[in-house]
Amino acid sequence: MFKSYRDGSxxxxxxxxxxxxxxxxxxxxxxxxxxxxxxxxAKRHIELITQRDMYERWYNQEVASHKITKKSLxxxxxxxxxxxxxxxxxxxxxxxKDTPTETQQ
Length: 105
Prior knowledge:
Elements: H1 5-9, H2 23-98
């Protein structure tokens, strides 16, 4: 049965003998532990990248929403200002109408 080096490297390796391990076996174990730790770090790194992309997307959505809200607010302020100015004009026209002219006195 075919077994790739990658799959084989993820297995627990060791000896059943009670004799001490050789330097090569100790080094192989250390390399396998380093490989495992690297895989864990890579997994966490990918999670961090995913989170960063998510927060960046949220930020961009909020910036766009803020721009829309700001435009809407400015538009509403403009309408309010125009309405106030129109009220002043109408009040001025009424005041002119109500004041007696020289010919009416």
